[in-house]
């Protein structure tokens, strides 16, 4: 029996199509993906992401404890900032990709729902002495409001944190939103648009959701499901764990070398292996493709060049913004570097594909 | 709701109307979500009832299409090449897929509207 988020009743009342995802009953769409996708690109959309996991690290030196677990360097950001990072095994395989929020006396780590149990077990087993881990996932709801008008929807409901003053990738804690205290407001997201993510005490998630729905009317904001979330994140070139990478993939192969800081202070798990992988170079590279036709290249489909298989699709969809098919794939490095035209084998036929740089979509600068 | 009294349905969620046009049901388009691509047969091809005749692809998934009755493909809805979303917006009208002629009912197991509604009610 799948778990339900605190907002389950709202989704049902809104007529959402519910699917099971990572052990949760989640809305995949409310109206249709195109309208929800477009709402986020042009106005605002709201997502229930309460399935995501939240972990708190406290103790004498929480930053050092997190530094030991992850590949990116927390010293590159100060308190009040969030950072994308990876957690790797000793051999450099990616256990999960994470967002770390650096506080003053604690750090918060947001983990993928599908990896929560694995992550928590790994973190507990490799926690530095003097640090404490608390899994706050069940008591924390996550609501994301994304899109060019997102801040104008959220800001009037918030006191205690200056939402409009938040820089991208920064957050404020102790906010009161629609009368609910103890909310973390973060200028982050997974859509390629500006936006805000709100970490809300689960018992009060409904109050915050309802207030945001009401405030969103003025910009014609739509509730959005996991379907639009996937098309948005893929256009923005963002990875999905379990589909684009797993424990058999290292961050360099996944195009995430920029989150591996081998020169950071102290050691971290996987550093030796990652140093070797970086020096040796990887046989495969994470590549973007624009499809010539409308058929969708999907996870696991073979990628060919010159009649020979040179890779495999990790994610693919129809890009509502670009009006064509897009996909990501692991492609043999020499083929990726040559920018050779590719084909994807879709149901026995070969569909043309052109290699393009990620992201597929970048929001207009403001 | 459109008047579906002249339509017959399959358990695999296709319909055929009195003019031998074929499409997918409203329930099917809802389950698929945003349709973005169709592979439809050539005009002139002969299909038997239950034969796989094409593919409908949405953002979510690709699904096979099966002929509700046998017959020769007389016409394919070319408008769907550029506007496949018509299958979502008007599955019983502008979102039709093809029209058959020389229809052959051999081996068909068609449902009327009430019976088809019962098939989808359990979901």
Detailed description of the structure:
- The complex is a heterodimer of chains A (366) and B (123).
- Chain A has 366 residues and is α+β, with helices and mostly antiparallel strands.
- Chain A has two domains: 282 residues, Probable tRNA modification gtpase trme, domain 1 (Gyrase A, domain 2), CATH 3.30.1360.120; 74 residues, Elongation Factor Tu (Ef-tu), domain 3, CATH 2.40.30.110.
- In chain A, 21% of the residues lie in helices and 35% in strands.
- In chain A, the strands form four sheets. Chain A has a seven-stranded mixed β-sheet. In chain A, strands 16-19-18-17-20-21 form a six-stranded antiparallel beta barrel.
- Chain B has a single domain, classed as RNA polymerase II/Efflux pump adaptor protein, barrel-sandwich hybrid domain (OB fold (Dihydrolipoamide Acetyltransferase, E2P)), CATH 2.40.50.100.
- In chain B, 20% of the residues lie in helices and 34% in strands.
- Chain B has four helices and nine strands, in the order E-E-E-H-E-E-E-E-E-H-H-E-H.
- Chain B has a six-stranded antiparallel β-sheet with strand order 1-2-3-9-8-5. Chain B has a three-stranded antiparallel β-sheet with strand order 4-6-7.
- In chain B, a hairpin with a 4-residue loop joins strand 1 and strand 2.
- Chain B is globular, with a radius of gyration of 13 Å.
- At the A-B interface, loops of A face strand 4 of B.
Produce the secondary structure layout.
The complex is a heterodimer of chains A (366) and B (123).
Chain A: E1 3-4, H1 8-13, E2 17-21, E3 24-29, H2 33-42, E4 45-48, E5 53-59, H3 62-69, E6 81-88, E7 94-102, E8 107-111, H4 116-125, E9 131-135, E10 140-146, H5 150-154, E11 158-159, E12 171-177, E13 180-186, E14 195-201, H6 205-216, E15 222-223, H7 226-235, H8 271-280, E16 284-291, E17 302-305, E18 308-319, E19 324-332, H9 333-338, E20 342-346, E21 349-356
Parallel strand pairs in A: 1-3, 4-15
Antiparallel strand pairs in A: 2-3, 4-10, 5-8, 5-9, 6-7, 7-8, 10-14, 11-12, 12-13, 13-14, 16-19, 16-21, 17-18, 17-20, 18-19, 20-21
Helix pairs in contact in A: 2-7
Chain B: E1 8-9, E2 14-16, E3 21-24, H1 26-32, E4 35-39, E5 46-47, E6 52-58, E7 62-66, E8 70-76, H2 79-82, H3 86-89, E9 98-104, H4 113-121
Antiparallel strand pairs in B: 1-2, 2-3, 3-9, 4-6, 5-8, 6-7, 8-9
């Amino acid at each position: 029996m799948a778990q339900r988020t605190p907002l389950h009743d709202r989704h049902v009342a809104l007529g959402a199509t519910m699917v099971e995802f990572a052990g949760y009953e989640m809305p995949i769409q409310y109206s249709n993906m195109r309208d929800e996708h477009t709402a986020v690109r042009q106005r605002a959309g709201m997502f229930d992401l309460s399935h995501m996991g939240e972990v708190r690290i406290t103790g004498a030196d929480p930053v050092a404890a997190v530094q030991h677990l992850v590949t990116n360097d927390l010293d590159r950001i100060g308190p009040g900032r969030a950072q994308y990072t990876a957690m790797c095994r000793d051999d450099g395989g990616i256990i999960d990709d994470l967002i770390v929020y650096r506080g003053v006396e604690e750090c918060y780590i947001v983990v993928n729902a599908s990896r929560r149990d694995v992550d928590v077990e790994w973190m507990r087993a490799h926690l530095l002495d003097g640090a404490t881990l608390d899994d706050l996932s069940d008591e924390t709801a996550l609501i994301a409001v994304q899109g060019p008008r997102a801040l104008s929807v959220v800001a009037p409901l918030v006191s205690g944190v200056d939402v409009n003053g938040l820089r991208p990738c920064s957050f404020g804690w102790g906010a009161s939103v629609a009368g609910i205290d103890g909310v973390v407001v973060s200028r982050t997201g997974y859509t390629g648009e500006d936006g805000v993510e709100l970490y809300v005490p689960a018992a009060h998630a409904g109050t915050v959701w309802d207030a945001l729905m009401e405030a969103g009317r003025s910009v014609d904001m739509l509730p959005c499901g996991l379907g639009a979330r996937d098309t948005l994140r893929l256009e923005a070139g963002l990875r999905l764990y379990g589909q684009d990478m797993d424990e058999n993939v290292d961050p360099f192969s996944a195009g995430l070398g920029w989150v591996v800081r081998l020169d950071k202070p102290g050691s971290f798990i996987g550093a030796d292996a990652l140093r070797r992988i970086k020096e040796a170079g990887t046989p495969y590279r994470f590549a973007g493709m624009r499809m010539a036709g409308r058929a969708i290249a999907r996870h696991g489909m073979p990628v060919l060049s010159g009649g020979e298989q040179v890779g495999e699709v990790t994610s693919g969809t129809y890009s509502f913004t670009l009006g064509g098919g897009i996909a990501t794939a692991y492609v043999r490095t020499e083929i990726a570097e040559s920018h050779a035209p590719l084909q994807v084998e879709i149901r026995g036929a070969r569909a043309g594909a052109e290699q393009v740089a990620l992201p597929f979509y970048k929001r207009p600068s403001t | 709701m459109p008047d579906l009294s002249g339509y017959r349905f399959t358990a695999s969620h296709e319909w055929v109307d009195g003019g031998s046009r074929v499409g997918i049901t409203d329930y099917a388009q809802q389950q698929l979500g945003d349709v973005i691509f169709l592979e439809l047969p050539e005009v002139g091809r002969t299909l038997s009832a239950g034969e796989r005749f094409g593919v409908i692809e949405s953002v979510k998934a690709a699904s096979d299409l099966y002929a509700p009755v046998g017959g020769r493909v007389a016409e394919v809805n070319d408008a769907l090449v550029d506007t496949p979303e018509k299958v979502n917006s008007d599955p019983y009208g502008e979102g039709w897929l093809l029209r058959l002629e020389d229809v052959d009912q051999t081996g068909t197991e068609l449902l009327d509207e009430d019976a088809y509604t019962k098939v989808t009610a359990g979901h």
